[in-house]
Fold Transport permease protein.
Amino acid sequence: MVELRAIYILWLREVKKFLRAKERIIGSVAMPVMFMMFFGFGFSHTSIPGIDGKINYIDFLVPGMIGMNMLFSSMFAGISVLWDKEFGFLKEIMVAPVSRVSIALGRIAGGATTGLVQGLLLFIISFFFGFRLQPGVNIIVAVVMMIIFMTLIAFSFLSLGLSFATNMRDAQGFELIINFVMFPLFFLSGAVSPISNLPIWLRALSYANPLTYGVDGLRSVLVGASMFSLFFDLIVCSFSAIAMVSLAAFFFERSESI
């Protein structure tokens, strides 16, 4: 019971921090919105190999932008660990009679919740750019499945960001490393163009990228277009989330620098 309360308190702290910082809410969706504006309008009447002719480019792009938003917000959430280290807050919560794993889970759950808020906000905004659910797609089922995939993406990459942050001390160094990791993950995920257009060696890297299956799952439930089956996407994303959370818990539990 004490462990669950600790997780809840840390979750609540992350959510309150997010809601109080209005600029974070705006900034979090600014880049995906710009991508939708420039890429969506720029390629809306262009035939792109690998995209089913039944859907237009903005419909193809929006699930990728939701995945991008989840990736970026999740990975950068790890920097809060470094700030808490710098200001001594992390040392204070470490003396509480709870495990470090519970502390890590509380932060991950809080970050996932704020990521979901951002993703849902972006989903609503996308309709103003011409995005439409495909005929035959049940909006309730689509939104529920979208939330499931967003949650799995958030847990995967929040945990990865936390793993990096736990083993680092410098916030600037963290930002450099995270940018170096994030952009290949994003561009290799099929978020802005089909991975079938990539060279074979890059395609192999895309198949090893967990975000690929998150974006594909989002695209499957929202527009009915996907490379893999929905079940396969769900299995891979679930396995990735479990593996990444376990890795973050391992590093957090054994970190001596905190």
About this structure: Residues 2-254 form one domain. The chain has one domain: 2-254.
